[in-house]
């Protein structure tokens, strides 16, 4: 099978379980260093979005959706099993920026981590290997997609959903957690 667009290629790689997010050193909203997708995480599965803190459009909508999902994770008793991760794709985002974004949307650990890569090399490797496009828009912003990826603890992208289908992403992620518990 061949793909004509990056989205088609990404979909084919996900269907064959060939799309992986690499183990990535990040800093979270509390300024703590964390290793994502190394397989050593406590959560079984993550719902991952890509944001940047200066974004007032897609990222605001994603923040609102993740706020709802964070409440759902708690209500379903899945804290520590199903995690939410917002990864900043803006190398300018500081720990303070992440903390402000987290406070705005009431992101709290362990349900929801807001992170940025430890350095631009880590960020670029993550974006490249995950087939995520982030293009400066020439006005200080970044054009990017608003997809939600459901990712295993060791970085395998199991599914992707458009941001409008955030509840479906949650239902799928929850089913992965429940299957792993059996």
UniProtKB/TrEMBL annotation:
Disulfide bonds: 55-59
Name of the protein in question: Uncharacterized protein SCO1/SenC/PrrC,involved in biogenesis of respiratory and photosynthetic systems
Residues annotated to bind Cu cation: 55, 59
Keywords: Copper, Disulfide bond, Metal-binding, Plasmid
Family stated for the protein in its record: Belongs to the SCO1/2 family.
Lineage: Bacteria, Pseudomonadati, Pseudomonadota, Betaproteobacteria, Burkholderiales
Keyword Disulfide bond: yes
Domain of life: Bacteria
One Pfam family linked to the record: SCO1-SenC
Gene3D superfamilies registered for this protein in UniProt: Glutaredoxin
